[in-house]
Amino acid sequence: MSLLGDHESPEDEISNGNDCQRVDQYGFKQPDDLNHESCEEMMTEYLTMLSRRSVKWSRLLKENTKVEKNLKVKRYVRKGVPNEYRALIWMAASGAQQHLQMNHGYYHSLLKARHDHHLEQTIRTDLHRTFPDNIHFHDSSQLCLQTALFNVLLAYGHHNKDVGYCQGMNFIAGYLLIITKDEEKSFWLMDALLGRILPDYYTPAMLGLKTDQEVLGELVKVKVPAVWQAMTRHNVMWTLVVSRWFLCLYIDILPMETVLRIWDCLFYEGSKILFRVALTLIRHHQNLIQQAKNLPDICERFKQITRGEFVEDCHAFIQNIFTEPGSLSMATITKLRETCRDRIQAQESGC
pTM of this prediction? Predict the structure, then answer.
């Protein structure tokens, strides 16, 4: 169910009475105090690089009718997927395309089925809170995505009754719709993320999310011990500083272009990418964090490290996440998850 024609894209400026405000290519309004010259210079360099990558991606996809996982494609993904190929690569790499083809008509059958009234109302409550700074989510927009967002969330809530709807899912679905411009593809990408890549993140107990926060703590203890000591000294729980990082997959935490580059790798390589990003932010700013005087100070510094040129230069940042944290295997994460999950379950059961 395609929503926007391929030729559609936001204008550079939108008119509102006598006011004129810039929007980016995804429809987000840019702050008035933004240094447009600096941003445009950075984006010009980045887009030049992406245009070169686009030529290479075009050749690769012509040579291979099916996107397969191999070292060459992995290298291409890490260097950036041009926006015109993102939906295709995300769908193929995550297995979402295969699930869509195997379940033809399933998404539409969910929308036609009898709906849970409480689920509907819960979703509707969050619709107007979803990207109020994006023109595509305004009621007045010619290309309003609010109905599509409602449909995707409602269908997913009925598809995965263990999850239903949880705050944060609206932003993930919104990003998927902005990129794919297609309800059904967004639904199956949600299924890949919430059902396979990040299981138990959004269930009522949120055991997957709690576990991964503790796993990050264990990784920091080994890889950035000075920060672990500061967290212990001030008695700061990891959930206070990183729960939104993982729950929202860095949406509204890092700049959009950086988030999309992270998602390129997330769909291709899986959940260990979330740890690589977190470790890079923490390790790069360890001196700033360890100088914190108390708990509120640490929380403020964790907000500071998600802003600035280090994260705005998305290409350099993605290169950093594969070098700064050092080696990080899925086997290591799996083993830590087992240990942390058992510990959390024991604590919650009062053992």
Answer: 0.91
